[in-house]
Every structure is written in structure tokens, then in C-alpha cells.
Amino acid sequence: MMHSILDFNQKINLKNVNFYFIPLIFAILFIVPFSVDAAEDGIIIVISNDGDSKITHNLKTQSTVSITTIQTISEDISNILAVDKNGIILDTTLQGNNIQIATLGATTVQLSYDSSIATNNSGIWKVTYASDEQTTIVLPELANIVSVNNIPLDMFDDMLVMPSGDISLSFTIREIVAQDFTVDADGVTHTVQIMTGSQIDSFDYSSDMISFSVNDNIPVLVIIPNSLFSGNFDTILNEKSIPHQNYFQDGQTSWLRIEPQNSGMITIKNSPIIPTTSSTGNQNNDEGGGCLIATAAYGSELSPQVQLLREIRDNQLLNTEAGSAFMNTFNDVYYSFSPYIADIERENPLFKEAVKISLTPMLSSLSIMENAESESEVISLGLSVIALNLGMYLAVPAIVIIGIKKRF
Phi and psi of 184, rounded to 5°? Predict the structure, then answer.
């Protein structure tokens, strides 16, 4: 009898628990904040030339979790920043080598901080840290690995993918050296400067090109005097064309940045700009015929304004029949007087500035042509640009002049 009464009371209590405590259980699970460890989606360590290390944790968290705890790879950290996928900054708290993040339901969190995991001793950098997760280390661009205590999972360029555990890595950074090479052309001595961390084994010059060998795939900056080469440049690595960046150009020098994919012979060919008109009056645009007036006004054919004109010509106008026909007619007229205007600009700075000011409205209106992708769009937008420029350069001044005459 006592046993049955006890069983009955237990059933009653169990029912009460189910009825009264289920809401409380849900409140604990989904409302009351608690802390869990997030799943690491990758740790990236970027080391600068100065040894400064930026660590980034990419985290996957649960939407039902309000606080996430992350273990750092080092205790000496600073500049902690946590953001969700929308860039909203989240609150963080540092406790030893753990960071608590108030995720507030975010499912993707990026945590970053600075850490002093790299030390320098007699020119050799040593990186030490511990991680429970796989890490990707991005070394400085000119780094040479000296030693590593574990076999990388993957390795390419200046990047290593390391397994979890205690990691120790040593490397050195090659010094960027500027080397001057003397070139004699037409009785005039010129100096070509090459800046790189790679070793240059040879240098040669001919009438329209310079060549030099590099023993590594390290970026190269070549400074060429305009008195030696002027115009466009073609860059070649081991007889194959490679891209280059027109890093800087002024009235005296052109700076070319080249990123070779491997070692070998780099050749820089000069393609001079020669404004000539064929028997049909069509300028040879494929070989660099440019806008002489704009080039003289802005000081370089590499200026953004001249680049805009060239891109519209090559990408929009010359790719359509209507645009090509317009360019043929335009070149007949334009190259009949533009060389003389360009010469005056070079000789008269005030006139050059006046031309630059007068070109600004036209360049702004021509940017509309970048949206032209078909024959019909080239025609319609082209006519709109012509009408707009006629209005700006003829109608508006005429209205102003007439208005002034009426008042006086």
C-alpha cells in the first residue's frame, strides 16, 4: 500500500515537473546567455616585414548562443576586434588567453587581434605559437624559410598551412637593393635603375629594349628615363609576354612594376607613340596612337584622363561599325591640328592649364560611353554625348554672350 501511494505521488510530481519546468527549461536553453566554444573555420596569421603579426579567426557559431569563447594562440595580444558578417562590432572580453565574444545570435564571426609571436635575433625571425586548429601563415613577400618544426600541410609562394599543435618557424627577409645600370645611346649616357630583392646576373641594352636576368620570382621595379625610352612598354619573361603595372610616370622617368612568375630573362621593349595618318586618314590605334592634346595637358599618356579616352576608343568605339566609321572621320580632322596644339601646351604652361580646364567637362560627359555595349547603344549614347558637348561648348557660351549684350 505504501509502495503504491509512493508511486502515485511520484507520478503526480513528475506531471508537475513536466507542466511547470518545461517553460523554464526552454528559457534556460534559448533565453539565458551561456558560453560555448565556436567551431573554427580557419585561423590566418599574417606577418609583416616588421614582425608585426595579425591573427584572424573565422568562426561558425550557433544562433542560439549569445556568448562564444575563443582560445588565442598567444597571451601577448592587443587591438582585439570582433565583427559579424554585416560588419557590426561585437563586445569582447579578454581573460588570460581566452576571448569571450558577445555574438548575440550571429552565426558568422570574424575575430582579429595583434600578437607578438615573431621575434628577431641577428636578422633571423622566429615565430612561435600554439593552436588547437589548423593555421595558415602568410609570410612577408621577400621571406626565406630557414626552419620549421613540423611538416606543412600545404605550401605555396609565401604561404604555409600548418597543422594544429606547437609551431616554431624561422625565416629571413631579403633586402631590396637598388642597382644602377649605365646605358649609352646616341652619345648620351642614361641611367636605368632596377629595385628588387632578387639577384640580377646580367643586363643588356639595344636600340629599343633592355634585358636583365633575375634568379627568383620577386617583384621588380624598373625606373627608365624618358630620354631613353618614351611611349608604351611591352614586358617579356623567357620569350613569353607578361603583364606589368605602370607604377608611376612624370616628365623625366617611367616606373614599371613587374611580377615575374619564375626566374629567367626579363625584356622590356619600347613601343614609341608616333602620330601618323595613313593614306585613308585612319590612325594606327593598335600601335599606340593617342590623344595628343590630352597627353600634353595631363603630362602623361598614363594619366587617368588619357586612359579613359583610350579605353572608350578601344573598348566601345572600335568594336562597332558606327564607332569605327566615326573614328576614321574624327582622326582625319583631329590629327590635322592636334600636334600643333600639343606643342603649344608644352611650351606655354598657362595655355596648358587652360586646355586642361576646358577638357574637364568633355571627359565627364564621355564617361557615359563606358556603358555602351552594343551598336545601338554606341550610336544613341554617342549622339547624346555629342549633343551634350555642343551644348556645353557652344550653346551655353552663346547664351551667356547674348545675355551680356542685352544688358549693355
Answer: -105, 115
Give the integer Cα–Cα distance in Å for 29 and 17. Answer: 17
Buried b vs exposed e over 252-279: b needs ≥16 C-beta within 10 Å? ebbbbbbebeebbbbbbbbeeeebeeee
Structural domain span for residue 112: 35-173
5 located within any domain: no
Find all residues with CB under 8 Å of 98, minimum gap 6, and list them: 69, 70, 71, 72
| Residue 248 main-chain phi, psi, to 5 deg | -165, 150
Domain count, the chain: 3
234, β-bridge pairs: 269
C-alpha cell recorded at residue 106: 550571429
Same-domain pairing of 208 and 301 = no
Same domain, 261 and 289: no
Residue appearing with cell numbers 561585437: 90
Q: Which pLDDT value is given to residue 20?
A: 45
**Residue 280 in grid coordinates:** 585613308
Could you tell me which of 141, 228, 139 has the C-alpha nearest to residue 187?
Answer: 228
Measured between alpha carbons, how far is 366 from 361 in angstroms, rounded to an integer? 9
Please report which helix (H) or strand (E) contains residue 341, including its range: helix 321-347
Q: What is the 3-state secondary structure (H, E, C) of 59-82?
A: EECCCCCCEEEEECCCCCEEEEEE
Cα–Cα distance between 256 and 269 in angstroms, integer? 12
Confidence (pLDDT) at 389:
78
Long-range contacts of 382-388 (CB under 8 A, 24+ apart): 382/317, 382/322, 382/323, 382/326
Amino acid at 49: N
State the 10-residue block means of pLDDT for the chain, 408 residues long. 38 42 41 45 86 91 84 90 89 90 88 92 90 91 87 87 93 86 89 89 89 88 87 87 79 85 90 47 42 75 72 80 82 79 81 84 78 79 82 74 72
Do 235 and 343 reside in the same domain of the chain? no
Of all helices (H) and strands (E), which one includes residue 181? strand 177-185
Q: Which of 113, 140, 173 is the last residue of a domain?
A: 173
Cell numbers for 261: 612568375
